[in-house]
Amino acid sequence: xxxxxxxxxxxxxxxxxxxxSSLCGCLAAMNNKVLAIDLDPQGNLSFSLGADADECYTxxxxxxxxxxxxxxxxxxxxxxxxxxxILLSGCELELxxxxxxxxxxxxxxxxxxxYDFIIIDTPPALSxxxxxxxxxxxxxxxxxxxEILSLQGIAQLKETIxxxxxxxxKTLEIRGILLNKYNPRLILTKEVEDLANMIAEQLDTDVFxxxxxxxxxxxxxxxxxxxxxxxxxxxxxAKEYTDLIYEILGMEKPIRKEKKQxxxxxxxxxxxxxxxxxx
Length: 279
Known about the structure:
By secondary structure, this protein is of the alpha/beta class. It is built from eleven helices and seven strands. The chain has helices at 16-29, 44-48, 59-64, 91-94, 103-109, 128-136, 148-167, 187-202, 216-220, 228-231, 236-248, and strands at residues 3-7, 34-38, 74-75, 80-82, 117-121, 139-144, 173-179.
C-alpha cells in the first residue's frame, strides 16, 4: 500500500509546490513508484512536472464524477501525475453531496497498491479540496518560510487538522514542519524557528532537522518542467531534499565525502616547491 503524504499550508508562497515536486523527484530517484496529485487550481505542480492540464481529463473531472482517478493519470519523465487546472476552483460551490469529504480517498483506495508513495499538493486555502487531501492522507508535511505571516498560516491550520482527524481520518499524523528559504545568519530566522518549535509542540510534531536553503536552481527547475533531481542532481538543493527524504522515512542519511574548498582556479605556472633548509 502506498504512503499518502499531503503538503499543506494555508499561507501561499511558502514552497508547497516546490516541496511536492522535489519530494517526487527524490523518491523516484530512489526507485520508488510515485504518483503526484495536484489539488491546487493554479496547476503549478502539473506544470512543474511537465503534465498537460488543458487537453485532458483532470482531477476536477474526478470530483465531478465524470471519470475515475485512474483515467486522469499522466506518465511524465519523473513520475505519474494527476493534473489540475483553474476549473478546480469551482468545486467548493459545486460539491454539495453527502460524503464529499471522502471522494479522493475512495478513488485512491483502488490505486494505492500501484504506488509506493502518493504526494498531494494542496491549495493555499482551507477548502473542500484541502479536507479531501487530509482525509486521504496518512501524513501531513507543513512547509513554511522564516516569516511571521507564515507562522500564522500554521496556527490557523491547527483547528482544521484536528477536526479532520476527529471526524474523517483518525489515523492522520503531522509528520513535521519544513523550513524553506532558510538562512541561519538572519536574526529573524532564529526567532521564527523558535516559534515554529513551539507550534510544533502544540501540533504534537517536530520541525524537521533538515532545512531547505534559498537557491536559484530551485526557482529555475519548474521553468524546464523538471524536478530538482532532474535539473541539478549535484546541487546543494538536491542534497538537502534527498536528506529530507531520509529524515521523513526515518532512514540514516548517507555519508558523503565533503569536497575541499579551493582558492580559485589552478595557477597556469605553479609555484616552485620550497627547498629543505639545512641546519
